[in-house]
Amino acid sequence: MHLDVRIPIGAMFTAFGALLTLFGLFSKKNIYAEHCMGININFLWGLVLLLFGVGMLLLAWRGKGGRTRRDP
Amino acid sequence: MGAAKMMQIHLQWVDYTVLAVYFAFVLGIGYVLRRDVRGSKDFFESGRSLPAWVCALGFIGANLGAQEVMGMAASGAKYGIMTSHFYWVGAIPAMVFVAVFMMPFYYGSKARSVPEYLKLRFDEKTRGFNALTFAAMTVMSSGISMYALAKLLSAILGWNFHVCITASGLIVLCYIFMGGLTSAIYNEVLQFFLIVFGFLPLVLLGLQQAGGWDGLVAKLGPVATNAGFASGAWTQSWTHTGSPAANPMGVEWFGLAMGLGFVLSFGYWCTDFLVVQRAMAARDMNAARRTPVIAAIPKMLFPGLVIVPGMIAIALHQSGGGFQLPAKGNSLDYDMVMPSMLAHYFPTGMLGLGLTALMASFMSGMAGNVTAFNTVWTYDIYQGYIKRDGTDAHYLAVGRWTTVVGILASMAAAYAAAQFNNIMDILQLVFAFVNAPLFATFLLGMFWRRATGHGAFFGLICGTLAAALHHGLTLPVGAAAGIKGGWLGATLDFYPSEMAQNFWTAIYAWTVCFVATILISLVTRRNKTDEELRGLVYALTPRIKGDAVAWYKRPAVLGAVVLVASAVLNWLFW
């Protein structure tokens, strides 16, 4: 039985999301003015990644479509 | 090294953390999957057990190497939206074709690889020719990926070249050695999402600064007129293809549609084992056939992700938006479009994610080649010619150690590329000659039962020679005779661009192979009976009944939807 690929994807993006969101909260604001027109991209995109990661984990947890043979 | 001085990126702890997390997952996937590998079928074919969507993302992930990401961004800056032809004219129709018409023969026959299909359909020599050239080509491409990665990292991050080569080779080796094809495919899926999430914010920020799509179109007008074209040349994909002189690519619609759309794309997507292997890992026939079609859906949207950043880069570069592309000689270093856009828009944090995505694309390009190499080597060369009657455990061990050899050979190729730039160019050219006619062989093999083994083999040789001859007798305007063509002494024809020359080389090679295969087949005796060709040739294979699955799971229905969507995209950006 293979590992469900959605588990590592979900876990990795959850980790990335958490890291970037927190970093965005506590980082100095002048780096955003310098690179991306003042948009706190770390915080915003961190949230997007977090959402995606948790969503993948939920899908893996609910369904078994990722690993079992359904109708041969 | 100009680029090294001009662009230096300094990473901080958060960037290194992102990178470390990614490598931990890559290796972790291989480690967890190692217990699933019990026999050679698990190692080389993922036990034919994966769901369609996983195979589909692996299918484009394997192709989404760094050449694709950095090359398409470079072309986006150089040629504008016309680069989208590689997707909406090239890849998409070919992916639908391989799904609907060819996958039944690949997956349905007993073949475990594309060369093995050639053996069952034609004969041993055709298979041997394909297996050897393919094996050599995969090692070379993997080596080139490795070289490009190490060169980029040493230029922008100041990392040691040798350490980059060794580390990237070791990581790819570890996860393939442990988990085989499944491990490679899972990592390709991971990398697919990483690329999407790593580059999407770049596009969003860039478009925000350029003033949206309309702002970008307005900024690209002067880019086109400064280069001597009509103002829409960078933002309209077909309007300026009436004559090669009217567009930056230097090609006209016929060479584009025939050369790129038909010969090159169908040749790649329908016959290259690197991608076909992903679909053959699917858990049943329907999943295998849906794999390329599902893959076509995100593929269709990729121009937005990889071409648009190039267009934004050149627009901002020329309109003085505070962004400069690095120079290379008296032109711009287009290969640096993606890295310099990352450095420009991403603050530390996101920068780590973007660079990780870039590294991931290099490594999965390598891994895709190495898994295809170890399968073809073990099944088609080792089992075919060296040891026919080994146990399954023996071939599994051979496959594992072939992975080691494949990685070592790639590293050697990477160093060769660093030493002798010309040798790599020449080898790539030779492989291009071998590949261009291949689709004619498969087309005739699958749809004409009268095609014979001699016809296929000598047809391929004729097609390859035709490609070499055409290349040797023509030149792109302004190029010196040599690696760019014209090496046969006389130059009969000049093309407006290298790309036009490539497209026409492919068209000649395909046509000669097609005609020669038919003629030689007609004068040679059939070497396979109808009975032997069952499941290998269209007319002799029972139709697949689509009744068992819902309409939205039928490859033909999905394929039609994808083709219509692709036509709409062509029309929108006409």
Write a concise keyword list for the protein shown above.
heterodimer, A: 72 residues, mainly alpha, 3 helices, B: 574 residues, two-stranded antiparallel sheet, two-stranded parallel ribbon, 21 helices, 72% helix, globular, disordered N terminus
Summarize the entry for a quick read.
With 72 residues, chain A is mainly alpha-helical.
What does this structure look like?
The complex is a heterodimer of chains A (72) and B (574). The two termini of chain A are 16 Å apart. With 72 residues, chain A is mainly alpha-helical. Chain A contains three helices and no strands. Chain A has helices at residues 6-26, 30-35, 41-62. Helix content of chain A is 68%, strand content 0%. Chain B has helices at 2-6, 13-33, 40-45, 52-63, 66-79, 85-108, 114-121, 124-156, 161-210, 212-226, 253-271, 273-280, 285-319, 337-345, 350-386, 392-419, 421-435, 438-447, 453-473, 498-523, 555-572, and strands at 327-328, 331-332, 474-476, 493-495. In chain B, the strands form two sheets. Chain B has a two-stranded antiparallel sheet with strand order 1-2. In chain B, strand 1 (327-328) and strand 2 (331-332) form a beta hairpin. The radius of gyration of chain B is 23 Å and the shape is globular. Chain B starts with a helix and ends with a helix. Classes of the chains: A mainly alpha (72), B mainly alpha (574). At the A-B interface, helix 1, helix 2 and helix 3 of A face helix 2 and helix 9 of B.
